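Below is a complete specimen:
___
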Amino acid sequence: STNTRNGTRSKTVISDAVGEIEISVLRDRASTFEPQIVRKRQRRLGDVDEIVLSLYAKGLTTGEISAHFAEIYGASISKETVSRITESVIAEMQDWVSRPLDS
């Protein structure tokens, strides 16, 4: 194929949980590639945050979440990005866990 090894370019997207995240996007000179997680011209990442938080709530580690994204979605998300997303809600989770319970 002539549409291989075209390199990457950086793209900044805004995440609900962490703010701005810089990602690497593959170049696609033939315009045949349709991204699955961060769509073309998309600037906000709501779904990624929800997926990461859901997997984290199920007990997966940051490395396992990163590997899950690579295996299922074919996209790389660093362990550091996963950590930033989960840290944004850890305080809320701890408040919820330590809340007073009804008798």
The beta strands are 8-15, 19-26, 44-45. The chain has a mean pLDDT of 79.
